[in-house]
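Case study.
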Amino acid sequence: MTGFETALRLLADDLLAAVGRGDWDAADAELATLAEEAAAAMAAGRTADLSAVARQTVRCHTALSLGEDGNGNAMQRLGQLRMLALVVAAARSRKPPRTPRLLAAPGTPGAAILSALKRGPLSGPALAGATGLSAAAIAAALPELRACGLVRSWPAGRLTFNASTDRPLTDRPSTGGENATAREMP
Amino acid sequence: MHPADLFIGLWRRLTARRDEVRSLAGRLEADPERAAVLFDAAAERLRDGAASLETWVLDPDARGNGEADGGADGGAPPLDRVLAAAQAIDAWFMPFAAWYAPAAADLRMQGSAAPDGAAADLLEARRRYNRDGRFNADPADGQLILRPGLLARAFNVREAVMPSAGGCDDGFDPVDLFRTLLVVPPTLAVGADRDGEPERRITMRFQRLAGLQDQVPADPDWRPVIGVVPLLQAEDDLDIHRFERDGETWYDPLARPLARRAADAVATLAEQGATIVLFPEVSAHPETLAAISEALRRQAVDGSIRYALVGVRQQAKDGGRPRNRALLLDRRGREIAGQTKLHCWDLDSNQCRSYDLRDRNGRLLDCAREDIETGSRFTLFELPGFGRLAIAICEDLGRSQPSAWIASAMAADWLVTPVMDSGLTTGRWQAKEGAASSRTGYCRVIVANSMALSHRFNRYCRANGEEDMIIHDCGVALLFQPRADEAAAPRIDCLTLPLADPAPGYVCSRWTPDRWQELPEPEEAE
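After joint prediction, the assembly is written out as follows.
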């Protein structure tokens, strides 16, 4: 457990204790701190810290939900914890792709795929054949390349064809998306 | 009109003209530039809304204008436009199923360059999915859902293998035209309960269970820990009650109460980091189930277990036949869902001999029918923090349906099969069926078994001089990691406990298939 999570766990224990003794001012202060830490971790992309926030938020919610005392004040904090947990879960449900330069670094599957696509659009199975990569490696690399805006894709029958967007291999974060269309197909 | 509702209408047209669609798909696969033009035209219309796209599909000027696939019956829209429109909608939904997202963006980014209606449609789609468990409005059409499960968000293996590898008889399944969307049909034909009985249809359902999550299955680095508690360790732990009715012999397995054993296993597995704990088919007596629930509740706050699946025999309230069920409990021990066994496991003479099933006079039985009321509904569950779960109780794994639908849909993350059988090996039927179910998909398969029947099997072996068949290390769990393509073999972990001394009474494995063996080819299997 990291120092951050240890501190967060202490916060969670104090929050539960405050609810237990009916000290709603203290409970709300702890909730505010938890929410601020969650927002800070989300904004900064601190994924490990956000995981810790998720664990402690859900832990607190579980502990409160087990309580026999269903009084209105406790239920209100239970609802606040639930909403915070939902927001954190939504933030953790997606991840930004790496930068174009990292994805296309020499020796990576991304580099092999982009090299193969210089010769024209290819389906997933054809990419596996052209690069020598396994289907699993192709399947793992394509979604991130698309999200990064380096590859655009479109369906052709049951196959998905892929083309390079010729986006510069910069260190800037992505501008594209999974849903890029075939409009600029070479 | 919402894009989801238009998709349902297009899907209906496509499935009604399956052979023509197969031909069209083949031509488009050979001509991706034409496919791109069609797709872009449809996507452009969709940016103006589903109604605009529908107008484009139904455009009378496009009928009979050289689009060989359309207009064959005079009034039908061109099939290539129908398919392109459906695929454009499929792509429109893709952000809902994507693990990777452009930085500092959310789903509205997709609609940001479009009229405000697109953002409103996305919001409505999200509301419907969270509220109703489907994108479409009318439940009579089935459920339009995201095809990728939670594990498949970062790893879309379907686009890297030839679709025919999925396993339809003629190599074509209209489902494979779509990456993001799947229609769960309202009902499915599953065959007769028994020979001579009428064909049955069961209800199909996708259910998203509400709950909070602190784990992210979509993360490729997520490694859950699977715990299996066989529970029934000795032969006497399971009484296979036999009786005569209507001139036939029936069996009804009754587990004895093992509350302490179950609770201790849950407590220890909670300390060892188990994410889910599985109890085999009909292994939990009602008292045992109560103890499991209470043990889960005790670990709820600081333990690791998020879910438990418990095989039970439930007595019918109206005095009818019992039901063979698997109950899903959450971390607090609350029953949140369940699946009833859909097919009976009737034993033939060989099986009666193997399990030493005799009548009251000590004679081996020729056959014994399972005395259960079969279920009439199959549910694909989506569990927060764990993934999509399909439950196939014992015989349900081996029957053609709904196993074939699960394999074809490729929408499940987990297929869990609680069984009551002699020891599992990498060569028995469960390994074959498990490997088939995990083929070229994402679906991880787990078979969980008890140990009581292995004692009966050993008695048969000893009586027949088949000493080499005697089970010493009893297979209580098989874990299958799906293979990514046909060239590879599934990876498998076979977890055993010594039959003579089953301590500690559970097995536990982190999902690390890189360390598991490849499933041997059938001729090399045990």
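Observations recorded in class. Chain B touches chain A through 61 residues (CB under 8 Å). Residues 63 and 466 of chain B are 72 Å apart (CA to CA). We will return to this complex in the next lecture.
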